[in-house]
Each structure stands twice: as C-alpha cells, then as structure tokens.
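Fig. S4 source data, part A: sequence.
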Amino acid sequence: MVLSAFDWEAIMKDALPYDEFLQRHATEAQRQRWEAADARVNLTVAQRDLLGGFVRRMPVLCLVGAWCGDCAHEIPILHQIALAAPQAIELRLLDRDARADLLEALARNGGQRVPEVVFLSEDWQVCSIAGDRALAFYRQMAKDQLGPSCPTGIVPPGEALLREATAQWLDEFERIQLMLRLTRRLREVHGD
C-alpha cells in the first residue's frame, strides 16, 4: 500500500500519548524499563531553545512494541523532544500489531521493524519516515557485534551514546520543522 493512501489523521486519533500507551500495552517490567530510559534523556539548554522555536505543527506517529528493546531506548528520546516542544510536536504511539497494513507498508530492508517513526505535516502529508534505530545505536552495534564481543542488549546505552542518539533524533525533528516552515503550501496557509 502506498503511504499517501493512509488516513493519517484517523491513525493519529487511534494512537496514544506516550504515558497512555505504556499504561495500556506495557507490563510493569516493560514500563519500568521505558521510564528509566526516559529519565536518562537530558536535553541541553541549546536543544531546548531550538525546540522552543518550532512553530509548525508536527504530528509524529511511532509504530512500536512495548516489549521492544529498541523502542524502549529510542522512543523516550522522542518523548523528551516532544515535551520540550508542545506547541509544535504531537507525539503518538501505536502498537505495531494494531495495524498490520501499516506495519507492512513501513517494512524496510526485507523486514518489519520497530520503532518506525512517521513525521507528518499539519495537513497530513508524510514528510519523513525514520527508524528503527538512530545512527549512533547502529554504530555502537557494529562496533560490538562486528568485533570480538557480542552484547546481550540488556544493558542500557552509556551517556555519550545516549547524547549522540538524542542529537541525531533532534536533527531529524529540526529537518522536518524547517521543511514545514519552508513549504510554500504551508507558508501560504500561515501567511509567512
């Protein structure tokens, strides 16, 4: 199915805010893992200032699984970014099993992966799709798995890796915000 064929507004209405998603879909152990990861994300003053300047509404849909370790590391970063820009970013989470058609449409590299993050415009156009991991996490995985050691995946990322992944996700949010600010269609709507 072509992504433009989806009713993104309806899908966003079916998706849940971060905390509600965890209440509905996560076990206590899963919720604790997500909450611990969320507590570790610290945006810098400069990052918060950047997010505070966002003016275009950005619906962001995350197709996730509460059980997924990558989701537990990645989505808390997005949650903190969204909390720093409530005037622009509307973050919603949808359980990957709720929409098999969407999961299939977002498949990449021959597989269905989570998290998948769909950045949308205020008028429900797809701006970007990102996921399943930030580049920083892939770099670390390559270092760990393509070398002499193989990690278990149970240990959360170190502070430097978390900062790098946060900066990479923030770059994608900024890229989409600038795309939305410079789009002629939306500039005409907003008179700017």
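Fig. S4 source data, part B ends here. The chain has one domain: 3-190.
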